[in-house]
Amino acid sequence: MKEKTIPELIENRTKKYGGKILFQRKDGWSWKQVTWLDFENEVKSIASFLIGTGFSCGDSAIILSPNKLESLLTDIAIHLIGGISISFSPKENPELINHALKDTCFKLVFAEDKDTLTSFRKLLDGKRLENIVLFSDSNNQNLGEAISYKTLIRLGMIKKKQIGDNLTCISKSVSPEHVATVLFKSSPEGKLIKVQLTHENLINTLIAVSERLNFICEEDQSFSYLPSTKVFEKLINYLAIFLGIRISMAESRNSFFEDILEVKPTIVFETKKGIEQILAKIPGEPSKKELKNLFGGRIKYIVTDSLPDTQITNLLIKSDLTVKDVPELKSIFD
Fold this sequence. Notes:
The chain has helices at 6-17, 36-52, 69-80, 94-101, 114-121, 149-163, 166-173, 199-212, 231-243, 256-263, 272-279, 288-294, 310-318, 327-330; strands at residues 21-27, 30-35, 60-64, 84-88, 108-111, 131-134, 147-148, 179-186, 192-198, 221-224, 246-249, 267-269, 301-304, 322-325. It is an alpha/beta fold.
């Protein structure tokens, strides 16, 4: 059955893959593995917590965080109950966020850390925030009125048991026409561009991109370090979920080259700029073996927001790598 909403997508893929590994993430010196069932359980715990705060279909939540596993899980959980996610990177231009807030009514804020939250408060003109979650609670810092992501999961698991099948009923009531996310960017002239994407928009975009990338199979493993919340960076892991492939994320750009050697991916998701930065690590023109080893040794495909210049693209192709851009994501703002 073709899914028409994000809740249907998650239900269908979890039924299909169950105990298969979906995510790998660095946890100290080792990689923690998250199965599809683990993923669904955590998403439902977040969704249950949201319901407990009074958050419901059509309500908005702001996510102020780099593109990471916790923010992706939160995004999906918001969609699961018909909510609207609005994501910004902590490094986003404050003027863009400020303009976006003038046209946004939100009930919850998810922030990367206390510093990110402090910066965000300065844009609110004294408006009080009712529900705040911090993804990072390092050093047992005083969170004030906020709660940590770990606490959210714990409370959400309790709430999930209390509401039972009600969460399933809410998820099934989400329609393709419901708005799932709102994206913002600044035009070259400095004008704010706003795009609302419904569940139908998201699913149709994922279908179009998957048809373009029809060489990818569910046994492939992806790897990325894409902290920005721009459209390519935000939606590329939605694509990985849609395709049923394994997802791994580097902790930082500095750890990218160490992490990729451990993961040994077959696919790398990377921006044009990122590809150029990676190749700059090798002086001169690398050999085929050097280039493949730079990407972990098993690399077959690079999926990017925009093709690098001809010289770089030809170098990658000569190394038996397939390089594909995804204009379907860029065209969202057209």
